[in-house]
Design brief:
Helix content: over 70%
Shape: extended
Oligomer: single chain
Structural class: mainly alpha
Order of helices and strands: HHHHHHH
Number of strands: 0
Length: 174
């Protein structure tokens, strides 16, 4: 039965939404960073190419489809928190100082990396499981052994500890 809340028709437009989203984000990032200079035509072509690459790769479309609502929710919640602080009488200059501090920026970056990591494991996780476990649960092929080695919990734990240690050393040497 068809209802007003039936959004199955929108599923056909997801590649268009992903294309537009990736195009706008990549265009704005390239324009802001000026990696390709100020040539807006070159930036448009590069953004168009990146957007086309995204829509022809189904896992990239799935990743964008999964992660975009969470980033939007994160931004809306952040804005609501800022509005609450402004209602409580905190001056916008004070909020701008707090948000632009290094610790706040790192917290936001870590939250976004965690959201991206969760979405990436949901989208790419099943294909990694096929590499590491094969069809029957154990894979004796070369790629299966490499996958088991790379994605073993101990290896991932050591990489995480090394990453934390490198940031700690960087912070200590300042």
């Amino acid at each position: 039965m068809a209802t007003i809340l039936d959004s199955s028709l929108l599923d056909h437009f997801i590649p268009i939404f992903v294309f537009l989203f990736v195009f706008i984000v990549s265009y704005s990032v390239l324009l802001k960073t000026r990696i390709l200079g100020n040539n807006k035509g070159l930036i448009s072509v590069a953004s168009f190419s990146v957007s086309l690459l995204f829509i022809v790769t189904q896992s990239a479309v799935d990743l964008i489809q999964l992660i975009t609502p969470w980033f939007v929710v994160f931004i809306i919640v952040s804005m609501c928190i800022l509005v609450v602080f402004m209602f409580l009488g905190v001056k916008p200059e004070t909020i701008a100082e707090a948000v632009s501090s290094e610790s706040t920026v790192w917290i936001i970056i870590i939250i976004m990396i965690v959201l991206f990591g969760l979405a990436l494991t949901k989208v790419v996780g099943p294909s990694i499981a096929e590499i590491t476990q094969g069809e029957s649960g154990t894979d004796d092929s070369f790629m299966g052994k490499i996958g088991v080695l790379l994605f073993h919990p101990k290896i991932i734990g050591v990489l995480f500890i090394l990453l934390v240690a490198s940031y700690a050393i960087k912070g200590i040497t300042r």
